[in-house]
Every structure is written in structure tokens, then in C-alpha cells.
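User: Predict Clan AA aspartic protease's structure from this.
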Amino acid sequence: MMQGFVNSQYEAIIKIAVGHTNRELQMVDAIIDTGFTGFLSLPISIINGLQLPWYFRDFGTLGDGSEVIFDMYRAVVIWDGQTKVIDVAASEAEPLVGMSLLYGFKIEIEAIERGQVIIEALQ
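Assistant:
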């Protein structure tokens, strides 16, 4: 089980440990975004700081319907106590956790400021 909180902008936030293989991981606050189908997005400043390796370019469709090209990087995360290798999209937005990382999990959100966020594996 993983826990987070709802911030003052009513965004569901969780802390996620992310980094490069065989290096120290960094804790990052990320917004849960059910409209994002990828695993994780990070600003390029964090990607550069973690020295994540570039992997490929991918097309994506934003919420407004516009299409963009994302540079994709490889990263290691600790997810529900397990080490997992994932793709990370470079974006200038706040870090986002997407549905590919959440797949197979249940999310409970108390949708009030300082509300609790709980993520549990489905049985």
C-alpha cells in the first residue's frame, strides 16, 4: 500500500522514488493524472539531474487534443515496495503519475484539502 495526500489545489499527490539504475533514487512529489496513459512524466531538469538515459521519441495527445512529441527516458522506480523499470516522458509540467504505473491498483482519494490518498494492489 502507498499513501499520499490532496494538496491545496485539490490534486492527489504521492511521493515516488525515481532514479537511474545502480544510483541513488530521489523522492519526487507527483500528481496522479488518470488522463495520462503513460507511466511517469518529469520535467527535463529532474531528468537531467538524475542522469536518466534517453530511450526514444513518442507521440502523445494532450488534454486539449493537440499532438506533441515527447522525449522518453528510462528510469527505475520503487512502486509498492518493488523495483520497476519504466518509461518517463519529458515534460515541462509538474511530475505526473499515469495509468500505466497505476494499472492493477485501486486508488482511494478523500477529495478535500489534506485528504488521504491510498493506492493498493488489486487482489
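Residues 47 and 90 are 7 Å apart (CA to CA).
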